[in-house]
Q: What sequence folds into this?
DNA sequence: CACAGCCTGCGATGTGCGTCACATTGGCGG
DNA sequence: CCGCCAATGTGACGCACATCGCAGGCTGTG
């Protein structure tokens, strides 16, 4: 459980709480374990729980009327999901599915509310977290409008690298755990086009492709291609 | 000033405040008047003021590296803008420009903070408002990925109709105050393509085109075309 | 270890929409 | 009331990307 506390105390939701508060809030946590491919919640479900990721990766997806999928985000340890239905009650507007085995801490609306009322600092941190998310999402919109598919792929890789990258002597290892199909849904393009973009980057020596991972070799060039 | 109070009391920011609080907050407001085309703030500016629209319309835009523009939102009376730089300090990530003459109520970070700390209900309302915005923006992302340009035009018109539409005996009058160029930036398409989509809808008798406005005649068909 | 089911890699073909190049209209200041 | 510039309307053309089709490779499961 030490591991758990470590990650939690760094999550934006907890960082504003004093010792006592953090301890109290932790006591009302429900831990959830998911196997790869398992669903935490689905679009349309009722639910007012918020989750903080402890380990693993979870994807947030939306499904269009005709069944095609769009990947909104890939979340890792410390990140928060499910807040929208908590702050603005209503059915889930996205599904959450584990990309790898994952452990999450769940909190109900009623668990959290007293803390917000007593320690407004918590609310301020949450407002900041949501504001950041909104900015990010606005960036995504701009990219969809202005940037071509290879550019968006480069951007996505750099984004994943920042969050999941591990420096090593032969380059920046990004084990994203996504299939090319999922990567394609992430950037809003077809699987084939993404495949070709990746192949092109590899050919130019900007990266090396591995199973559900890439190794970034020339980040500067990738960054230039992204804008 | 009565008019002002009327609109303000309905804005989500104020709705949570008690009588005294609302009166106190109102006293720290700075009123801003903008003429059509005038800029309230620009991308990159420093600033931590939040604004509530009292009258008129303001557009939020982003500019890409090569100078092309993207219209994030058109805001009308009661709506809030500039919150992001207030909750998550940093330079503005969008510009705000008046589409019509407009009046806004401005509040600085320091004016608002005491109220959040003393009346957590205010923070709760703000969280809800941001959550709603985030959901909306996620919808926009999905539309850009899944829906073709005519579909997005139809969606945009229906959205504008909900917020600015006036029922009349010859159809639903939507005076959006946008040029077709701006409408195009709104849906992430070229001016020409938007023009052709509008012409097509008009030809089918779904709407009538007027100067900076449309009159919706067959909302049901438009709605079907949008999805 | 064999077979099935995913995942990846690529070429061929079609098309939505951006770009360019105009003509036309309409509002507004002189 | 005239001329000018911004806003609209429309066609021709090309390209980026989706779609389709198929051929390996990898993985794990009986």
A:
């Amino acid at each position: 459980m030490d591991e758990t506390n470590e990650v939690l105390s760094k999550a934006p939701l907890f960082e504003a709480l004093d010792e006592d508060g953090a301890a109290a809030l932790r006591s009302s946590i429900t831990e959830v374990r998911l196997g790869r491919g398992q669903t935490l919640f689905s679009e349309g479900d009722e639910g007012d729980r918020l989750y903080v990721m402890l380990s693993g990766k979870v994807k947030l997806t939306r499904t269009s009327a005709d069944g095609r999928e769009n990947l909104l985000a890939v979340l890792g340890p410390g990140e928060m999901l499910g807040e929208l239905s908590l702050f603005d009650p209503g059915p889930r507007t996205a599904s959450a599915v584990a990309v790898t085995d994952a452990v999450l801490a769940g909190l109900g609306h009623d668990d959290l509310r007293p803390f917000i009322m007593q320690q407004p600092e918590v609310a301020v941190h949450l407002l900041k977290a949501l504001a950041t998310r909104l900015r990010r999402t606005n960036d995504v919109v701009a990219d969809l409008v202005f940037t071509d598919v290879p550019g968006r792929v480069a951007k996505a890789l750099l984004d994943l690298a920042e969050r999941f990258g591990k420096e090593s002597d032969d380059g920046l290892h990004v084990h994203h755990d996504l299939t090319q199909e999922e990567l394609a849904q992430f950037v809003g393009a077809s699987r084939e086009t993404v495949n070709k973009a990746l192949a092109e980057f590899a050919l130019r020596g900007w990266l090396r492709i591995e199973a559900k991972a890439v190794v970034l070799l020339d980040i500067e060039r990738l960054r230039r291609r992204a804008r």
User: Anything to note?
Assistant: Chain B has a mean pLDDT of 91.
